[in-house]
Amino acid sequence: MNMTELQLSSNTAKVSDFLQTISAQPRLEIILTIGANEACVCHLEAFLGQRQAYISQHLMALREAGVLTARREGRFIFYRLADLELLDLIRHAARLAGVSIDSLGVSEQISSPGCECPKCMVDAPALITLV
Amino acid sequence: MNMTELQLSSNTAKVSDFLQTISAQPRLEIILTIGANEACVCHLEAFLGQRQAYISQHLMALREAGVLTARREGRFIFYRLADLELLDLIRHAARLAGVSIDSLGVSEQISSPGCECPKCMVDAPALITLV
DNA sequence: ATAATACATTCAAGATTATGAATATGACAG
DNA sequence: CTGTCATATTCATAATCTTGAATGTATTAT
């Protein structure tokens, strides 16, 4: 009988699990990088400067928590936030954490050096930037 | 150079630290038990059915994160949320986590069996109940 | 069919955190 | 100034999480 099983029994535990899933720093960064757009793994890899397997591991956790949805297009898999209100939650948390949110609008298109997928040449990447 | 020091360098890391501090289940329970009121350790101990040292450890973490403020009154120390908006953040998270928030109003006074401090006989304990 | 690309999964070791036990401190009563 | 109560702190260990390495799978190109 481990902690995870016990936690699933109460609603407080569900909130705890949810928050713990999204709040790990690399996951917050993934969420903020995806923002209101779609992003493929190669884009996240290039943008965050992390290895593919590492990104995939966190994407898997976020997918299992229902935070992300995935869509395959040819060889690429595009991830999107299941609920954009998650961005509001993070803004809310940032405010309480005393962090200044410098840019809240949809940011300009980023060149995404290192990612050659079709979407990376089109989409704007981040909705929130925590500088 | 450990992880904690690295995390302190970016704002994303501050949000991550903040969320991770509050999202551990016993800490969420403490926060929800305190709600909009004050609570002494003995009350939390009785209400949550945990040992004193255990409660104090989590209170210490929450205090260091700036989430709680403490006030001494004689032998008792009363804790209060530093910012009541934290309760809104938790409501927000509960919604995104698909958890039904059954009672959002200030709950009735609870008998707090096991806690004899003066406040426990007066205050209402919880603002949110996640059943 | 083979190779290459994009991504997923597994596994184990290291790092971190959570927890219980023991002990310390600070305030008040006597 | 001694004891007791309320709370804080320290410490060691168990549990968990993170991370990197290696490998697997699905899709497309040749």
SSE inventory with pairings:
The structure is a homodimer of 131-residue chains.
Chain A: H1 3-7, H2 11-23, H3 25-34, E1 39-40, H4 41-48, H5 52-64, E2 68-73, E3 76-81, H6 85-96
Antiparallel strand pairs in A: 1-3, 2-3
The structure holds a DNA duplex (30 and 30 nucleotides).
Could you list some keywords that capture this structure?
homodimer, 131 residues, mainly alpha, Arc Repressor Mutant, subunit A, three-stranded antiparallel beta sheet, 3 strands, DNA-binding
Description:
2 copies of one chain form a homodimer. With 131 residues, chain A is mainly alpha-helical. The first copy, chain A, has one domain (14-121): Arc Repressor Mutant, subunit A, CATH 1.10.10. Helix content of chain A is 47%, strand content 11%. Chain A has 6 helices and 3 strands; from the N terminus they run H-H-H-E-H-H-E-E-H. The first copy, chain A, is globular. At the A-B interface, helix 2, helix 3 and helix 6 of A face helix 2, helix 3 and helix 6 of B. Chain A binds a DNA duplex (30 and 30 nucleotides) through residues 2-4, 24, 26, 40-42, 51-57, 59-60, 72, 74-77, 117.
Quick description:
With 131 residues, chain A is mainly α. Chain A has one domain: Winged helix-like DNA-binding domain superfamily/Winged helix DNA-binding domain (Arc Repressor Mutant, subunit A).
